[in-house]
Please model this.
Amino acid sequence: MTEMGSTTIEGEAHVINIGEVNKDLLASMHKKLSQTPTLLSNSAGRRSCCIFKVPQSLIDINGKSYQPHIVSIGPYHQGEPHLKMIEEHKWKYLASFLNRIKNNDLGLEDFLMAVKPLEMKARECYSETIHLNSDEFAELMVLDGLFIIELFRKVLGVVKSDPEDPLVTMTWILPFFYRDFLRLENQLPYFILECLFDLSKFPGENPSPSLATLALHFFNNTIQRPDKDIAKHHSLRGMHLLDLVRQSLIPSEIRDHPVNANIPTHVIHSISKLRRAGIKLKAVKAESFLVVKFRRGVIDMPTINIEDFMTSFLQNCVAYEQCHSSCSKHITTYATLLDYLVNTAKDVEYLCDNNIIENNLGTDGEVARFINNLGKDVGFDIDACYLSKMFNDVHEYYRNSWHVQWASFKYTYFDTPWSFISAFAALILLILTILQTLYTVIPYYDH
Model:
């Protein structure tokens, strides 16, 4: 039946009233159907996309660990007021660089022309739509890219720097560069840096180090690895600087390690529980802190220095591995291992006493909080991680009742001198009580 311009269709189960559709609403919905996402672009799921805005869930946990504190690199934080100081010095560095190469038949236009063909490929590296026109985007890539390269060269003495350059001489600035250059939201595509680096080399740089060597030596001022470890990565390429340093810390012995994802993997307990089961942790020397092994009741772990740079680096590596669908999850696996091992400040104290952690961050409680936050709200496939066999081996050892009972007895009565003295005194008291009882009973039976 029809009533006041509307139609009622009666069915067995329900009644549907069909009235006139608001044409403005209809037009608005059709417009939205054709819109392209900008906050997470269509290219965000591709392998080529590697520079992401960090998910809000991780920001809620780790705060400003993903945002630059002193220098903006790339489009995400461009123009933010607190980064203006270094923005001015970028132009000073660019002018100094152009003046240095003016006799090599190269000018600013050559660098702009070099990055122009790479524009679309570079835009697709960002998970969000970049609202810059073609000229603005090229300017940003050249300005930020050459600033990074020139800073590398000056800090490492590849080219002569101004003895009064505050970016090099003021001791508080460089530590912020180390951290800001390795924040996920603060990256340039590595192929852009390579393009600018190759074009900017000149005869005075002889022998000329590769971009990877230059970058890794720059960050080695804080990571501090032997030169021979860096030399192995002369030709290493990353998606950006964060990925380059991340990859350089993954030795081939674990990068190429086969994983049997068909075998269910078990989580392991905290240090306090493992110790009660007789499992110890021992500091060892290795190429990377990622090389963790278990043998005969001992977990071998290389020393890691927990301080401002390392906490920021680990947090941004985990965020990158969470966002990039195609990269390995080695740092996430290591972060999860630490999260399993550490529940309290006491666990951190044990790791510090055994030289597995060098605590340059704060109290043991602060380190424990950092470790627990590092593994929080993180997607992780334990069956497909590089430590899956180690987790299972520790679990099997822990399940062995003989190990647990004997270790628990030792832990309870022989862990400290005072517990041993107490146990020994109790044993003596028990023996004296038995002897006294015997001396009392024996004369009775003699009669």
